[in-house]
Amino acid sequence: MLRILSHVGRLEAITLPPELDAQVEIIPIPMSGDIPPEATGEVLISTPTAVPNLAEALDRGVKWVHLIGTGIDQFPLELIGPDRILTNSRGLSAVPISEWVLACMLAFSKRLPEAWVDEAPERWNFPPSPLGTLHGATLAVLGFGGIGTAVAVRALPFGMHVKAMRRTDGPSPVEGVEMVRSVDELVADADHLVIVAPLTDATRGIVDARLFTLMKPGVHIVNVARGPLVVQDDLRVALDDGTVAMASVDTTDPEPLPAGHWMYDHPQVRVSPHVSWNFPGAFSAMYEVFAENLGRYIDGRPLVSVVDPADGY
User: Using one digit for the tens of pLDDT, what is the confidence trace for 205-240?
Assistant: First the structure.
């Protein structure tokens, strides 16, 4: 019987196949305070946020940790060590997030919601300002994992020129995408810059004043990754001097964004409260990777969505 310690309850959100369910015992443990002395397990299912008693839980015989969620920038990776495996549920939100990105780019190009009217306009058939198009526009994708590739797959049929950058070498997994090796080259001619890179020591603050000087005026920025990837004070300057025409921001620094923050009132910023990941069945889908890996773990097969603590994702 495989004993599973769980910081997230008895896992009512998933239904394990009968052959797996008969082989496991799920033991709920608190996320803070003392853990009962009899609570031990080879597997720990937890969250990607700071859990006060994580170190104690890991010392209960844990060899594999699965995190419900995708981003791990708040998780203490130094506690994992070489003798434990860490996995998460990345990839499950690639479709809804990529759809959100396309919606943001279309809204920017088509001047929505400004183009809608609730009374007779001064002129019919002509908008107050010219409408744009995605066709022929250059899309720069910073980070080319599951979400980035999903964005590219949806952008190419619109006739966009898609450029992408990722940490590793190799050809694009999506035909028609131009891979570049430097962030400077990536942003140089971008009409839309979509940020989907993980937050690591190497990427924190990567979109800063220096990078803004390399962008052509009028660029649209979409951030659906993590707020600290962008230096927000530098973004404000770039918005005010016309370098950035619009920032569609689903992730901020900090989260939640406090009342009175300048982003709420800036006419060229559209803030959403980190909702791009959401879709019907999202919460139960978070456990699907765990269920898949549970069968693999019991069978002795390699796990999927393995996190490399050295890389930070």
Answer: 999 999 999 999 999 999 999 999 999 999 999 999
Choosing from 25, 114, 181, 255, the catalytic residue is 255
For position 285, what pLDDT does the model report?
84
The residues pairing with 244 across neighbouring beta strands, listed in sequence order, are 219
Q: What angle do CA 220, 158, 97 make, to 5 degrees?
A: 60
Question: Distances in Å between the alpha carbon of 281 and those of 90, 91, 96, 286?
Answer: 15, 15, 12, 9
CA distance 270 to 257: 13
Specify whether 226 is catalytic.
Answer: yes
List the catalytic residue out of 84, 270, 274, 296.
Answer: 274
- Most confident range, picked from 7-16, 190-199, 279-288: 190-199
Q: Which of 7, 60, 220, 226 is catalytic?
A: 226
Q: Does the active-site annotation cover 119?
A: no
Which domains are delineated in the chain?
2-91+281-299 (3.40.50.720), 94-271 (3.40.50.720)
Task: Look up 255 and say whether it is catalytic.
Answer: yes
